[in-house]
Amino acid sequence: MDEEIAVEVSGLEVGYGWGRNATRVLHGITMEVATGRTVGVVGESGSGKSTLAKALVGLVRPTAGSVRIGGVHVSSARGADRRAMRRKVQMIPQDPYSSLDPRRTIGEALAEALDPRRANVKKHADEIVHWLETVRMPADTIGRHPHECSGGQRQRVAIARGLMIRPEVVIADEITSALDVSVQAEILNLLAKLRRELNLTMVFISHNLAVVRQVSDEVVVLYRGDIVEQGPAADLYQRPQHDYTRTLLDSVPGAPGFDIQPRHRKDAA
Ligand code: ADP
Ligand code: MG
Prior knowledge:
Helix content is 36%, strand content 24%. By secondary structure, the protein is α/β, with parallel strands linked by helices. Helix 3 (106-114) packs parallel to helix 5 and helix 5 runs parallel beside helix 6. 42% of the residues are buried.
Protein backbone atom coordinates (compact mmCIF):
# COMPACT_ATOMS: atom_id res chain seq x y z
CA MET A 1 0.00 0.00 0.00
CA ASP A 2 1.29 3.41 -0.94
CA GLU A 3 1.24 5.79 1.98
CA GLU A 4 1.40 9.49 1.46
CA ILE A 5 4.32 10.98 3.35
CA ALA A 6 3.43 14.24 5.11
CA VAL A 7 6.70 14.88 6.90
CA GLU A 8 10.07 13.82 5.57
CA VAL A 9 13.14 14.48 7.68
CA SER A 10 16.39 13.50 6.06
CA GLY A 11 19.87 13.61 7.59
CA LEU A 12 18.83 16.55 9.74
CA GLU A 13 21.64 18.22 11.65
CA VAL A 14 21.04 21.26 13.82
CA GLY A 15 23.45 23.17 16.00
CA TYR A 16 23.53 26.36 18.01
CA GLY A 17 26.17 29.06 18.27
CA TRP A 18 29.22 29.83 16.20
CA GLY A 19 32.95 29.24 16.31
CA ARG A 20 34.20 28.01 19.65
CA ASN A 21 30.67 28.14 21.08
CA ALA A 22 29.20 25.96 18.38
CA THR A 23 27.33 22.90 19.61
CA ARG A 24 25.68 20.24 17.53
CA VAL A 25 22.38 19.10 18.93
CA LEU A 26 20.89 16.86 16.24
CA HIS A 27 23.30 14.53 14.45
CA GLY A 28 21.56 13.38 11.32
CA ILE A 29 17.94 12.58 12.08
CA THR A 30 16.03 10.64 9.42
CA MET A 31 12.36 9.90 9.93
CA GLU A 32 9.02 10.27 8.22
CA VAL A 33 5.40 10.69 9.16
CA ALA A 34 2.71 9.28 6.89
CA THR A 35 -0.49 11.24 6.44
CA GLY A 36 -2.98 10.42 9.17
CA ARG A 37 -0.38 8.88 11.45
CA THR A 38 1.18 10.05 14.71
CA VAL A 39 4.86 9.62 15.38
CA GLY A 40 5.93 10.04 18.99
CA VAL A 41 9.35 11.39 19.84
CA VAL A 42 10.68 10.48 23.26
CA GLY A 43 13.94 11.22 25.02
CA GLU A 44 15.23 12.68 28.24
CA SER A 45 15.58 16.41 28.80
CA GLY A 46 18.33 17.86 26.60
CA SER A 47 18.16 15.11 23.98
CA GLY A 48 17.09 17.57 21.28
CA LYS A 49 13.32 17.08 21.12
CA SER A 50 12.39 20.75 21.11
CA THR A 51 15.16 21.49 18.63
CA LEU A 52 13.60 18.90 16.32
CA ALA A 53 10.16 20.50 16.85
CA LYS A 54 11.59 23.90 15.94
CA ALA A 55 13.26 22.50 12.83
CA LEU A 56 9.92 20.96 11.80
CA VAL A 57 8.19 24.34 11.92
CA GLY A 58 11.13 26.23 10.44
CA LEU A 59 12.16 28.10 13.61
CA VAL A 60 15.71 26.79 13.46
CA ARG A 61 17.75 26.24 10.35
CA PRO A 62 19.41 22.91 9.70
CA THR A 63 23.18 22.94 9.30
CA ALA A 64 22.73 19.87 7.10
CA GLY A 65 19.91 17.71 5.82
CA SER A 66 16.35 18.74 5.22
CA VAL A 67 12.78 18.85 6.46
CA ARG A 68 10.00 18.60 3.91
CA ILE A 69 6.34 19.05 4.71
CA GLY A 70 4.00 17.98 1.94
CA GLY A 71 7.06 17.79 -0.30
CA VAL A 72 8.12 21.42 0.31
CA HIS A 73 11.40 22.28 2.04
CA VAL A 74 10.57 24.06 5.29
CA SER A 75 13.71 26.11 5.65
CA SER A 76 13.98 27.37 2.09
CA ALA A 77 10.35 28.48 1.73
CA ARG A 78 10.09 32.22 1.12
CA GLY A 79 7.33 34.79 0.79
CA ALA A 80 3.97 33.26 -0.07
CA ASP A 81 5.38 29.72 0.26
CA ARG A 82 6.54 30.59 3.73
CA ARG A 83 3.13 31.94 4.72
CA ALA A 84 1.50 28.83 3.29
CA MET A 85 3.98 26.74 5.26
CA ARG A 86 2.94 28.47 8.48
CA ARG A 87 -0.59 27.26 7.94
CA LYS A 88 0.51 23.78 6.99
CA VAL A 89 2.34 23.11 10.25
CA GLN A 90 0.92 24.13 13.59
CA MET A 91 2.71 23.84 16.91
CA ILE A 92 0.51 23.41 19.97
CA PRO A 93 2.23 25.35 22.74
CA GLN A 94 3.56 23.67 25.87
CA ASP A 95 2.40 26.16 28.46
CA PRO A 96 -1.31 26.96 28.44
CA TYR A 97 -0.77 29.73 30.99
CA SER A 98 1.41 31.89 28.77
CA SER A 99 0.04 31.00 25.35
CA LEU A 100 -3.24 32.95 25.63
CA ASP A 101 -3.42 36.73 25.85
CA PRO A 102 -5.04 37.48 29.26
CA ARG A 103 -6.87 40.56 27.90
CA ARG A 104 -8.65 38.71 25.10
CA THR A 105 -11.61 36.41 25.33
CA ILE A 106 -11.27 32.80 24.22
CA GLY A 107 -13.54 33.71 21.28
CA GLU A 108 -11.17 36.48 20.24
CA ALA A 109 -8.15 34.20 20.51
CA LEU A 110 -9.85 31.64 18.27
CA ALA A 111 -11.17 34.23 15.81
CA GLU A 112 -7.65 35.53 15.48
CA ALA A 113 -6.40 32.10 14.49
CA LEU A 114 -8.98 32.00 11.70
CA ASP A 115 -8.37 35.55 10.53
CA PRO A 116 -5.30 37.26 12.03
CA ARG A 117 -6.05 40.64 10.46
CA ARG A 118 -9.54 41.22 11.80
CA ALA A 119 -10.43 38.80 14.51
CA ASN A 120 -14.22 38.97 14.25
CA VAL A 121 -15.87 36.76 16.84
CA LYS A 122 -19.44 37.32 15.58
CA LYS A 123 -18.57 36.46 12.02
CA HIS A 124 -16.83 33.24 13.02
CA ALA A 125 -19.05 32.35 16.00
CA ASP A 126 -20.46 29.14 14.52
CA GLU A 127 -17.05 27.84 13.64
CA ILE A 128 -15.58 28.83 17.00
CA VAL A 129 -18.39 27.07 18.88
CA HIS A 130 -17.93 24.02 16.69
CA TRP A 131 -14.24 23.84 17.63
CA LEU A 132 -14.95 24.46 21.30
CA GLU A 133 -17.32 21.51 21.18
CA THR A 134 -14.73 19.46 19.33
CA VAL A 135 -12.35 19.89 22.27
CA ARG A 136 -15.25 19.24 24.69
CA MET A 137 -15.61 22.77 25.98
CA PRO A 138 -18.99 24.45 26.59
CA ALA A 139 -20.12 26.94 23.94
CA ASP A 140 -20.23 29.83 26.45
CA THR A 141 -16.44 29.60 26.81
CA ILE A 142 -16.42 31.89 23.77
CA GLY A 143 -17.00 34.94 26.00
CA ARG A 144 -14.64 33.96 28.80
CA HIS A 145 -11.17 35.18 29.58
CA PRO A 146 -8.22 32.83 30.11
CA HIS A 147 -8.16 33.49 33.90
CA GLU A 148 -11.68 32.06 34.11
CA CYS A 149 -10.42 28.77 32.70
CA SER A 150 -8.35 26.03 34.33
CA GLY A 151 -5.00 24.93 32.94
CA GLY A 152 -6.60 21.92 31.29
CA GLN A 153 -9.33 24.07 29.72
CA ARG A 154 -6.75 26.48 28.40
CA GLN A 155 -4.86 23.61 26.85
CA ARG A 156 -8.08 22.48 25.17
CA VAL A 157 -8.45 25.97 23.74
CA ALA A 158 -4.83 25.88 22.57
CA ILE A 159 -5.52 22.56 20.85
CA ALA A 160 -8.63 23.99 19.17
CA ARG A 161 -6.61 26.97 18.02
CA GLY A 162 -3.92 24.72 16.57
CA LEU A 163 -6.39 22.49 14.75
CA MET A 164 -9.01 24.94 13.49
CA ILE A 165 -7.04 26.18 10.51
CA ARG A 166 -6.79 22.56 9.43
CA PRO A 167 -3.01 22.22 9.30
CA GLU A 168 -1.48 19.33 7.41
CA VAL A 169 0.74 18.53 10.37
CA VAL A 170 0.43 19.18 14.09
CA ILE A 171 3.49 19.37 16.33
CA ALA A 172 2.83 18.81 20.02
CA ASP A 173 5.91 19.39 22.19
CA GLU A 174 5.38 18.43 25.85
CA ILE A 175 1.84 19.76 25.76
CA THR A 176 0.84 18.04 29.00
CA SER A 177 4.01 18.65 31.00
CA ALA A 178 2.68 21.79 32.72
CA LEU A 179 -0.51 20.06 33.88
CA ASP A 180 -1.48 17.95 36.90
CA VAL A 181 -1.40 14.21 36.28
CA SER A 182 -5.21 13.79 36.24
CA VAL A 183 -5.56 16.69 33.80
CA GLN A 184 -2.75 15.26 31.66
CA ALA A 185 -4.79 12.10 31.25
CA GLU A 186 -7.85 14.12 30.14
CA ILE A 187 -5.85 16.00 27.54
CA LEU A 188 -4.17 12.85 26.25
CA ASN A 189 -7.50 11.06 25.97
CA LEU A 190 -8.90 14.02 24.09
CA LEU A 191 -5.95 14.07 21.72
CA ALA A 192 -6.15 10.32 21.19
CA LYS A 193 -9.80 10.71 20.19
CA LEU A 194 -9.22 13.74 18.01
CA ARG A 195 -6.44 12.15 16.06
CA ARG A 196 -8.86 9.44 14.96
CA GLU A 197 -11.89 11.67 14.48
CA LEU A 198 -9.93 14.22 12.46
CA ASN A 199 -7.34 11.87 10.99
CA LEU A 200 -4.57 14.11 12.29
CA THR A 201 -1.00 13.85 11.16
CA MET A 202 1.05 14.56 14.24
CA VAL A 203 4.48 14.60 15.79
CA PHE A 204 3.90 14.10 19.49
CA ILE A 205 6.86 14.86 21.73
CA SER A 206 7.30 13.98 25.40
CA HIS A 207 10.01 12.86 27.80
CA ASN A 208 7.56 10.20 29.06
CA LEU A 209 7.44 7.01 27.01
CA ALA A 210 4.18 5.90 28.64
CA VAL A 211 2.55 9.16 27.56
CA VAL A 212 3.98 8.94 24.04
CA ARG A 213 2.71 5.43 23.59
CA GLN A 214 -0.87 6.47 24.31
CA VAL A 215 -1.16 8.70 21.28
CA SER A 216 1.42 7.39 18.84
CA ASP A 217 1.42 4.85 16.03
CA GLU A 218 5.18 4.79 15.90
CA VAL A 219 7.81 6.01 18.30
CA VAL A 220 11.24 7.48 17.73
CA VAL A 221 13.65 7.35 20.66
CA LEU A 222 16.08 10.24 20.74
CA TYR A 223 19.28 10.02 22.75
CA ARG A 224 21.73 12.92 22.69
CA GLY A 225 20.61 14.02 19.27
CA ASP A 226 20.57 10.60 17.63
CA ILE A 227 17.74 8.19 16.97
CA VAL A 228 18.63 4.99 18.85
CA GLU A 229 15.44 3.08 18.21
CA GLN A 230 12.25 3.47 16.24
CA GLY A 231 9.26 1.29 15.62
CA PRO A 232 5.58 0.65 16.31
CA ALA A 233 4.61 2.16 19.66
CA ALA A 234 3.40 -1.10 21.20
CA ASP A 235 6.52 -3.08 20.22
CA LEU A 236 8.80 -0.47 21.60
CA TYR A 237 6.93 -0.37 24.85
CA GLN A 238 6.69 -4.13 25.26
CA ARG A 239 9.94 -5.23 23.65
CA PRO A 240 12.45 -2.39 23.82
CA GLN A 241 15.61 -3.25 21.88
CA HIS A 242 17.95 -0.54 23.07
CA ASP A 243 19.28 -0.13 26.61
CA TYR A 244 18.38 3.52 26.60
CA THR A 245 14.74 2.73 25.76
CA ARG A 246 14.69 0.33 28.72
CA THR A 247 16.07 3.07 30.93
CA LEU A 248 13.30 5.37 29.77
CA LEU A 249 10.71 2.71 30.52
CA ASP A 250 12.12 2.13 33.99
CA SER A 251 12.11 5.83 34.74
CA VAL A 252 8.43 6.39 34.05
CA PRO A 253 6.08 5.88 36.97
CA GLY A 254 3.43 4.68 34.52
CA ALA A 255 0.95 6.43 32.35
CA PRO A 256 -1.65 8.67 33.89
CA GLY A 257 -5.03 6.87 33.84
CA PHE A 258 -6.34 6.47 30.33
CA ASP A 259 -9.79 5.45 29.27
CA ILE A 260 -8.85 4.24 25.80
CA GLN A 261 -7.00 1.20 24.68
CA PRO A 262 -3.85 1.52 22.64
CA ARG A 263 -4.57 1.05 18.97
CA HIS A 264 -2.78 -2.29 18.58
CA ARG A 265 -5.06 -4.03 21.03
CA LYS A 266 -8.13 -2.88 19.19
CA ASP A 267 -6.59 -4.02 15.90
CA ALA A 268 -5.77 -7.41 17.36
CA ALA A 269 -9.29 -7.96 18.70
P1 ADP B 1 14.81 18.73 24.85
O1 ADP B 1 13.62 19.43 24.28
O2 ADP B 1 14.89 17.28 24.50
O3 ADP B 1 14.95 18.95 26.31
P2 ADP B 1 16.38 20.77 23.48
O4 ADP B 1 16.20 20.63 22.02
O5 ADP B 1 15.60 21.84 24.17
O6 ADP B 1 16.14 19.35 24.17
O7 ADP B 1 17.89 20.99 23.81
C1 ADP B 1 18.91 20.13 23.31
C2 ADP B 1 20.27 20.75 23.63
O8 ADP B 1 20.42 21.96 22.92
C3 ADP B 1 20.46 21.09 25.09
O9 ADP B 1 21.79 20.80 25.45
C4 ADP B 1 20.22 22.57 25.14
O10 ADP B 1 20.94 23.16 26.17
C5 ADP B 1 20.71 23.04 23.79
N1 ADP B 1 19.98 24.23 23.31
C6 ADP B 1 18.64 24.31 23.10
N2 ADP B 1 18.30 25.52 22.63
C7 ADP B 1 19.44 26.24 22.54
C8 ADP B 1 19.78 27.56 22.12
N3 ADP B 1 18.82 28.40 21.68
N4 ADP B 1 21.07 27.93 22.16
C9 ADP B 1 22.03 27.09 22.58
N5 ADP B 1 21.80 25.83 22.99
C10 ADP B 1 20.54 25.39 22.97
MG1 MG C 1 11.94 20.31 25.14
